[in-house]
């Protein structure tokens, strides 16, 4: 069981894809929150690795909606880092990670 410490990486509201968290041995995605900021529907993919990485989750949000997900107690292994692909909409993303 991973009990922390946890790192919170917040990416400001945007429409462009971007790196979420750099690669690190033992890195685990423990959870995340995504908030839609432009009053229109949004779709976001989170990948393990860079832009060509493996998609590990999809989120679709209604206008002005937000979501929080927690993957404890073990999280999802993402040693190659985390990539945020914003398919549509304007979203703010916070990634919660820990090192195993």
Short description:
This protein is mainly beta and 100 residues long. 0% of the residues lie in helices and 60% in strands.
Descriptors for this entry?
100 residues, 5-stranded antiparallel β-sheet, 60% strand
What do these coordinates show?
- The chain has 100 residues and is an all-beta fold.
- It has a domain at 1-33 and 64-80 and 90-100.
- Helix content is 0%, strand content 60%.
- Strands 1, 3, 6, 7 and 9 form a five-stranded antiparallel β-sheet that branches. Strands 2-8-4-5 form a four-stranded antiparallel β-sheet, with no helix packed on it.
- The radius of gyration is 13 Å and the shape is globular.
- The N and C termini lie close together (9 Å).
- The model has no long low-confidence stretch (mean pLDDT 95).
Oligomer state of the chains in this structure: single chain
**Biggest β-sheet strands, sense, barrel:** 5 strands, antiparallel
Class per helix and strand makeup: mainly beta
- Tell me the β content: over 45%
Report how far apart the termini are: 9 Å
Q: In angstroms, what is the radius of gyration?
A: 13 Å
Residue-averaged pLDDT: 95
Helix percent reads: under 10%
Q: Count the DSSP helices.
A: 0
Q: Report the principal-axis shape.
A: globular
- Total beta strand runs: 9
Q: Return residue spans where pLDDT drops below 50 for at least 5 consecutive residues.
A: none
Note the run of SSEs as H and E.
EEEEEEEEE
